[in-house]
Amino acid sequence: MAYTIALSDEEYAALSAAAAERGTPIETLVHEALAERYAKRHSERASQATDPLITFMIQTGHVLRAPTRITDTSAERAERERLAAAAGPGKRASDIVIDDRGSR
What does residue 33 show for φ and ψ, rounded to 5 degrees? Predict the structure, then answer.
């Protein structure tokens, strides 16, 4: 499967210059950069998981990282509570969905 991305003229010029320096096509340069940057992260996260289910879920992209079992700090809990309150204070998610859906 092939995908197309939009680049600005400056981005394309930078890629073209880097590819010319290395003597490789732009496509090869992009593939190498993506593999180097993102495949490594993916495999590192999967190797950190000891549970085979978690490893499988990381490899298939269902979760980003294994749970650390480290409790949140009070600042992290306060931030999560602040975001939850800002999202819709006093209203359950199921009620919001029903309101958005409208009457049938």
Answer: -65, -45
CB atoms within 10 A of CB 63: 15
pLDDT digits (tens, 9 = 90+) for 89-103: 677 777 777 777 776
Between the ranges 16-20, 35-39, 62-66, 90-94, where is the mean pLDDT highest? 16-20
46 neighbors 55 (Cβ within 8 angstroms): yes
Task: Give the Cα separation of 42 and 40 in Å (integer).
Answer: 5
Would you give the DSSP letter of residue 39? I
CB atoms within 10 A of CB 74: 8
Q: pTM for the whole thing?
A: 0.37
Q: Is 58 exposed, middle or buried (0-12, 13-18, 19+ CB in 10 A)?
A: buried
Distance, in Å, from the CA atom of 53 to the CA atom of 67, rounded to the nearest integer, reads 12
pLDDT higher than 80, residue 14: yes
**What whole-number distance in Å separates Cα of residue 45 and Cα of residue 42?**
5
